[in-house]
Specification:
The protein is of the alpha/beta class. The chain folds into two domains: 38 residues, no CATH class; 192 residues, Rossmann fold (3-Layer(aba) Sandwich), CATH 3.40.50. It has nine helices and eight strands. A hairpin with a 6-residue loop joins strand 1 and strand 2. It is globular, with a radius of gyration of 18 Å. The relative contact order is 0.16.
């Protein structure tokens, strides 16, 4: 009874507001129900890289993955990277709206659950930030997204599996060729004993250069299957 009273009092004194429209939202929910309906779920995607595919197509692997298969084996993305998802992810990364990480992580975990898979990864590993970017931002958004995913799916979370050994320009500022060069040999693996099946979690997957480099070094160390789980999938530049 006391807990319920405190919770109701807190909701009155410190109401929650939608990150998109500014209207009041339910406690601990980052966006209201109406704005949630505006999020553009990614329905038809390449099974390997999650690139959006035309609704009319019967193929499930895009031409790029057929011609040049990436090191990772499978991808899953919740949304197309467009408005308002762009706005929400920007708020998470640059405005310290960590309640969005809880929302996205919960939605991602629930979506994976609904696939009723029996071959879930043995471990979840967030994409690392450089020390400089971590110091400036104060947190790694991929780790914050991964926490509720790990809890929902009961999969161990390894926040320190990867280490970024050199700072480099943000991938968003570069074209495809530059992105690939930008992340080449930018990461190392901290753990000696790796599970056979790992899922890498990121906020946005664009060209897949970062994901592919991480998958490459995992495969080099004997990991058999690597998946990429992200909140949004952008169309390649």
């Amino acid at each position: 009874m006391v807990y319920k009273w405190l919770k109701n009092t807190q909701a009155r004194l410190f109401p929650y507001f939608c990150s998109l429209c500014g209207d009041k939202a339910q406690a601990h929910v980052a966006i209201c129900k109406e704005c949630h309906k505006q999020l553009n779920y990614l329905i038809n995607r390449c099974q390997q890289c999650a690139l959006p595919l035309p609704e009319s197509t019967e193929i499930n692997i895009c031409g790029q993955c057929q011609n040049q298969p990436p090191y990772f084996d499978q991808s899953f993305s919740l949304y197309n990277y467009d408005t308002p998802v762009k706005q929400l992810i920007s708020g998470l990364k640059f405005q310290k709206k960590l309640n969005l990480a809880r929302l996205f992580g919960t939605l991602l975990g629930e979506a994976i659950q609904q696939t009723n898979r029996h071959d879930l990864p043995n471990c979840i590993a967030p994409v690392p930030l450089s020390n400089k970017r971590m110091k400036n931002r104060g947190y790694n958004q991929s780790i914050e997204i991964a926490r509720p995913v790990s809890k929902l799916l009961s999969i161990p979370l390894s926040c320190n599996l990867f280490k970024r050994v050199r700072h480099s320009p943000p991938q968003s500022s570069l074209n495809l060729k530059s992105r690939q060069k930008n992340v080449c040999n930018a990461f190392t693996i901290n753990e000696k004993r790796l599970p056979k099946h790992i899922a890498i979690i990121d906020d946005v997957m664009t060209t897949g250069a970062t994901s592919n480099e991480l998958a490459r070094i995992l495969k080099k160390e004997g990991v058999e299957k690597v998946e990429i789980w992200s909140i949004a999938r952008a169309i390649r530049d």
